[in-house]
Design brief:
Layout (H helix, E strand, L loop, with lengths): L2 E2 L10 E2 L10 H4 L3 H14 L5 H8 L3 H13 L3 E4 L6 H4 L5 E4 L1 H13 L8 E2 H10 L9 H7 L3 E2 L5 H10 L3 E5 L5 H7 L6 E6 L1 E4 L2 E4 L27 E5 L2 E4 L23 H4 L4 E4 L9 H6 L2 H6 L1 E5 L5 E5 L3 E6 L3 H4 L2 H6 L2 E5 L4 H14 L3 E2 L3 H12 L6 H17 L4 E2 L1 H11 L11
Parallel strand pairs: 2-8, 5-9, 7-16, 7-17, 12-13, 13-16, 18-19
Antiparallel strand pairs: 1-6, 3-4, 8-11, 9-10, 14-15
Amino acid sequence: MVQSTVVKKHRVELTPQAESPPVPTSFDALELPKAVLENLLLKHLAAYPKSDILQLTKLMCINSHMIEDMLGDLRAKSQVEVFQGQGSGFNATSTGNVRYGLSEQGMQEADTAFAKDAYLGPVPVSLSSYETMVRAQDVRARMVNRQDVTHALEEVLGADRMIGYLGPAINSGRALLLYGDAGTGKTFVATRLLNSLNTSVYIPYAVYAAGNIIKVFSPQHHKRVTSDEIRSIAFKEQFDRRWCLCERPSIQVGGELTMDMLEVNHSEHNRVWMAPLQMMANNGIFIIDDLGRQTMPVATLLNRWIVPMEYFYDYLSLPNGQQITIPFILTLAFSTNLDPEKISDPAFLRRLGYKIQFGPLLESEYRQLWGQFSQSRNLDLAEDCLPSLLELHRQHSVGFYPCIPKDLAGISRDIIVFEEVAPVITSEIVKRAWEVYFTADGKGGGAR
């Protein structure tokens, strides 16, 4: 029933839902073993030789006094060496000209630290701090209304028929099942649901849990709303830079999903332990697209979510064999063009709070969408174009799927450029586009 137009929604200024995390000023406030901090400092000095206090403070995102304290301890262990600047007088002894590097013993310790854990970045936050922040940023803590959802879906044709279902679904915090034919806008709508909240969230760069550093922040999945530059030296005007203020995450995965992606894991070439997708999606939305197309059995995938959906927490197995509990506070959305009754059992369907069916557009909406997509490609529509197109739909019993105008307009433009004719989609051109877009029975394109 829905699909995007080509108009971009204006950017709304986001405000943090939770209070900013305060800057920790002591080791106790970090809630981390000091050995973890020292090992991370050694790795930074190995990666950035002869760094000064300011540079190390920016790299590790903690108070400079703690950096100096650890450097003093590492010097006492003969693991760090001091390199004096070339200045004279006061400048020669100022901290701005003092640089630190690793001794031979320090390099050995850094190698051992890298072998155990290759993470290199800001100091991780504790698991308890992470849980507290995730719960403070729960989407259910700030209910949306009809106006909010209408604004979020203002670029979606036919959204007025869906708002009465989608709004309560967002407020519930329960899982969604979006089903219907391919090309009806299920995934597009799901990715825009969180726009109704107009709030930003704090995402940690990494979390320390049971002896492991788990990297959470991912530039691929998280979009910053502020820079990391410290604009003020006053603590009350800062927040803990081990957190990054981001838009609510929207993570989408389809047929490529494997069970490994849902556990703490690392790549073959990088031994940094990465958070699973659902942990990266906390306080946002996690869309499992093309449900039923994954290589694993559907029952295996669905059973993975029974406990998180019921109790709002998830169990993760760590590399060292231990298991931790993390909050599962996100909107989980399944999207499929298969019959839900055939890919899942009634017990699982019952656990899905909202099951929303998507269908074709109305003819008036379909015409409007054609006008928008052709305009976006600087093309005109000949008078005979849409009548011919509507007749093709009737002949082949193809619904007014929202994906069709975008795809056929693109193919029509390819034909126009190749033939070097006027930028006008005629009846003849749209028929040629239809023939190559659909299979012989006239339905293949819309069933992708």
